[in-house]
Amino acid sequence: MSSHAHTGGSTVHAPIAEPSGFIRKYIFSVDHKVIGIQYFLLALTAVVIGIVLSLLMRFHLVWPNATLPFVSGGQMSQEQYLALVTMHGTIMVFFVLTTAPQGGFGNYFLPIQIGAPDMAFPRLNMLSFWVTFLAFVCIIAAFVVPGGAPISGWTGYTPLSGLGEITGPGEGWGQTLWILSISLFCLASLLGALNFIATTIDLRAPGMSLMRLPLTVWGWFVTAILGLLAFGVLLAGGILLLLDRSAGTSFFIPAGLVVNDQLQAHSGGSPLLWQHLFWFFGHPEVYIAILPGMGVASHVLSTFARKPVYGYRAMAYAICAIGFLGFMVWGHHMFVSGMSPYSGFAFSVLTMSIGVPSAIKTFNWLGTLWGGKIQFKTPMLFALGFVSLFVSGGLSGLFLAQPAVDNMLHATYYVVAHFHLVMGVAAIFGIFAATYFWFPKMFGRMMNEPLGKIHFWFTFVGAYCIFMPMHFIGIAGGIRRYADASAVGFLAHLQPVHEFMTIAAFITGAAQLFFLCNFFYSLKFGPKASKNPWNATTLEWDTDSPPPIDNFGGHYPSVYRGPYEFSVPGAVDDFIPQWQEPAQVARVK
Amino acid sequence: MPSTIVTEEIELIHSGKGPGGGDSSGDGGNGGDGDGGRGDSSGATRVPQRAYVTGMFIALAGILMFFMAFVSAYIVRKDMPNSAWIPLQGPRILWLNTLVLIASSLTLGRAHNRFKAQDEEGFRHWWATTTFLGILFVAGQIIAWRQLAAQGIFLASNPSSSFFYVFTGAHGLHLLGGILALLYVQFRATRKVARGTAIEVVSMYWHFMDGLWVFLFLLLYLGR
Amino acid sequence: MRIRKRNSGSVATPALLSLILVVLVAITVYVFASNLPWAVRPAPITSVGAEIDHQYDLTLAVTGTVFILSQLGLAFAVFKFRDHGQRAHFTRGSNTLEAIWTTATIVLFLGLGLMGHKAWAEVRFTAPAPDAIQVEVTGNQFVFNFRYPGPDGKFGRLDPKQISASTGNPLGIDANDPAGKDDIVVPTLTVPVNHEVNLLIRSQDVIHNFYVRELRIQQDAMPGMVIPLHFTANTIGQYEVVCTQLCGLGHSRMHSYLNVVSDADYDAFLKQQAAGQ
Ligand code: HEM
Ligand SMILES: [Cu+2]
Ligand SMILES: [Cu+2]
After folding, report:
1. Does residue A302 fall inside a structural domain?
2. CA distance B152 to chain C (A)
3. Which of B10, B141, C65, C182 is the least crowded, having the fewest Cβ atoms under 10 Å away?
4. Looking at the 3D structure of chain B, how many domains does it have?
């Protein structure tokens, strides 16, 4: 029946010529699909590095005195541990959780899902990727410069990050590169956001009204708006921080600081100001990481439950509400910072309210499953895992959102558990769901199901084994970013819990090899994918796998209905694609 | 399953129109509303011209946030206890620069009008005048910097001077970009459709940078 | 209606997934039922701390219920609605349900937030009693120093230029200020039981943090600021003070003790320190 799809309301255009030559085609390509894959591969590289760093940390926490082969000095030092903390966080947050869902899948599928031939500004798109790549090179370079990688965490709190080498190893060149990398990343993300927004506004196919957008597009669209408004602020902050370090200004550094018995020549700045600028970006950033995942989860749940997304409108509004509220809660990271307690109260109330749209999403996901006909393909498993993890991780946010309770939990492993479940693992489950779901479209081959399922079981159980026990360490007062827990008496008896988590982490980490093998094996040897292997409804399934250079092979689709028309009563098939003309829908007599 | 209702479900589904049709009718399919007619979504060019206008609006929003971050930092930093803030006596020439920049917006408006009136000569004249005034402004800003430097006031001398250099520097860079765009339109933009859009988009940018400067200038003077 | 291939999926996958979710809930419930979290959480030594614990437990009751219901709901849905050849039940949602759960979560979450506000207000919105004991807490890489004003009740002026840990003036107390002569500087914090203490928290270099689990209090030591924080400890004992704000390579070694002692012991402590001064 999909043969009907190309007739009727579609327009035929002269096909866009494919560029010839390897460089134009695969390196400096302006094709959003190639750029999407480039982002994806960058994120894949980054995530492998990030995981290795985290395993080193977990290892050190449990066996601090073990001799490591590739660590200078044999044993890991305190500053090496802190450098790992910093680099792991930075790489994961920026180069994985921001890059893969938005830059990767968003780039690839947003234009196709709205029926556009490309992004609005393809050359800008290419520029975004290459600036991101440069940012990545900068951050990796921080490993090898004199002094090593920075040690001030992914939040780069100043004065630790603002005074140069004197505050610690890695605070010289390493920290400068960190700021450069982040600033470049901001720039690239701004360009990307611009492109996403303009594309969604102006390049939608005829009939693709806002309320017919797939929820993935809603996710990417709102994420882009968040990025547009947030990254500029971090960029500004980064510039000021860089000036403080290298030009002797005092934006963030107060007078009379004495480091290492040396009086610093700064005056009157405010370290809190950096925190405000950082978290004004930082909180929206966590939603930048998760909103695309929410979109993917909704999309995949609906497809494999063979049911329309429950409460589509509520879902779209909830995404908007989260985006809007996301800009008003940044202060919840600063309850104990010395910010006015009255602001703390206001931020607390606003933060509790952001739990509401999050809860709405969860209820609607369950509603989507309810009464469905669930097919347990690998992408579906990861989408289901996403829901479970999002709930587990999101609920702990309600503790942290209350300043009084946060007083005991701030900066403990409780926070680490919270954000790893809700942002780290849930967002990565979103990425995995997207990968298994769209791999056939992107590469024209199916991934291996049994391997995918094994990957899921290990990762799902493993993630819970790593991050659930962390809550207890947090309640006990276990402090994050400690290279050496033995210094504090009350932390010593928690060591067995740490051991358990480390073992779980190594097993889970190793299980990712199932994914990598599956990915690369299927690239080459997977069974050929048809146009629409999942019997799905949105426009990306209306074109070849992989799609031709102009996405729809010279015709542009028109859209006739909402994105999730599954199991519509009266229709013969249990799905009615967006592109199918009403007259063509086969009906039950 | 009651197939009567059922068929209606499908019948309700809006029948699509050709490109640019959009969906004005109800959208029974998803119980959603259409977003009205959508103009020429896929005309002769791959990307509709209005995407550039949209893009510029979006870019300006991003740029605004970037500057607002500086501005809020300025306001907070100035009123810090022990801020060590010495109000900056901005060089007189800033007034002149400001006038020049405002004038450039006026000449740009004229150029735009001339373009709409299809008066190519007039357009080129006023457009070039705008470019010239823009360059004059940047030169004036550099003179202001040099005057400050001659008084021994540098980037790190005082928080107020730090902000002064940051504001003027960031704005100046953005304006340089604008000048390049003006020059591009003057010398390179030849395709008819694209040219109209380029003129519109560059004008938006320029007026915005003008307004932004007036705001920063007032902030630096009134909010010393 | 065309029936698709029967049993398109095996029952094993949904069963396993539901099982995992049920086990997850079971273990979590078991762990809480076995009192473990309360065992690792030390008893609070302030009345506010007890309130915070109460608020924590209340939040746990609410979120725990939501956790159990939603994970079990997911487990149920996954198993019950697995593909066994049926046709999915077509629905686009229900505005009534949306309204119900939106309202319910607003009431629940905001209510919880407003209730939790009380303990916060008690510590942070109030001023210390006028007769509270003043102690200045200073963090620097990587130690805490605690300063008592001495018999004159006044802190001496600080001068960063005179800071010199090696000559015994880690805080840089101005040698020219008579009020500073009798100041007591010690590496551990000693306070009398049941007496209000007002800490004045500051830092010399980077951001540090003053955290005592039993007080349920964390406060950053923010360079350029002196942040007051008051509490009344009601249980004699020794408690660990740690730094929770990443402050450099010695971060995890930065810790000290809070000694809550009887009035008599506190007087003895002051006398002894004054003698040593
Ligand atoms: C129910 C909604 C949520 C609430 C109420 C909430 C609340 C909070 C609060 C209050 C904190 C600060 C804790 C502290 O530092 O003491 C926090 C930290 C954090 N949250 Fe959430 N959160 C929610 C959802 C999310 C989501 C969806 C994400 C990411 C996708 C996320 C990511 C993070 C991260 C990354 C941090 C820690 C940042 C750091 O200190 O390094 N949270 N959350
Ligand atoms: Cu946040
Ligand atoms: Cu520390």
Report:
1. yes
2. 26
3. C65
4. 1
* pLDDT digit string, tens, across residues B99-114: 999 999 999 999 999 9
Closest Cβ opposite residue A268 in set B47, B51, B159: B159
Predicted-complex ipTM score: 0.94
Whether the per-residue pLDDT at B18 is higher than 50: the answer is no
**pTM, whole model, 2 decimals?**
0.93
In a domain, B41, yes or no: no
CATH number at residue B190: 1.20.120.80
- Judge whether A4 lies within some domain: no
Measure CB to CB from residue B1 to each of C1, C92, C224 and give the nearest one.
C1
| CATH number for the domain that contains residue A431 | 1.20.210.10
pLDDT at site B4: 31
- CATH, domain range C133-276: 2.60.40.420
- Rg, C-alpha atoms of chain A: 24
Show residues of chain C in contact with B1, CB under 8 Å: 1
Question: b/e map of A300-334 (b: 16 or more CB within 10 Å)?
Answer: bbbbbbbbbbbbbbbbbebbebbbebbbebbbbbb
Tell me the per-residue pLDDT of A448-493, one tens digit each, with 9 for 90 and over: 999 999 999 999 999 999 999 999 999 999 999 998 877 788 888 8
Is residue A17 in a domain? no
Q: Is B31 within 8 Å of C1 when comparing Cβ atoms? A: no
Q: From start to end of C49-101, where are the E strands?
A: none
User: Do B27 and A562 touch, CB atoms closer than 8 A?
Assistant: yes
Determine, yes or no, domain membership for B3. no
**Closest among A291, A265, A82 to A162, alpha carbons compared:** A265
Query: Hey, are the CB atoms on A567 and C88 less than 8 Å from each other?
Result: yes
What is the C-alpha to C-alpha distance for residues C178 and C76, in angstroms, rounded to an integer?
74
Domain of residue B205, residue span = 49-222
Range of the domain at A283: 33-254+266-584
Q: Does residue B112 sit within a domain? A: yes
DSSP H or E run through A296: helix A271-305
Domain ranges for chain C:
10-83+95-124, 133-276
In a domain, B21, yes or no: no
**Nearest atom, ligand 1, residue A332 CA:** 10
Considering only B4-13, C142-151, C186-195, which range has the smallest mean pLDDT?
B4-13
Task: Tell me the CA–centroid distance for residue A478 and ligand 1, in Å.
Answer: 18
Neighbours of chain B (3+ CB pairs under 8 A): A, C
Q: Does A447 reside within a domain?
A: yes
- What does the pLDDT look like over A59-71, one tens digit per residue? 999 988 888 776 6
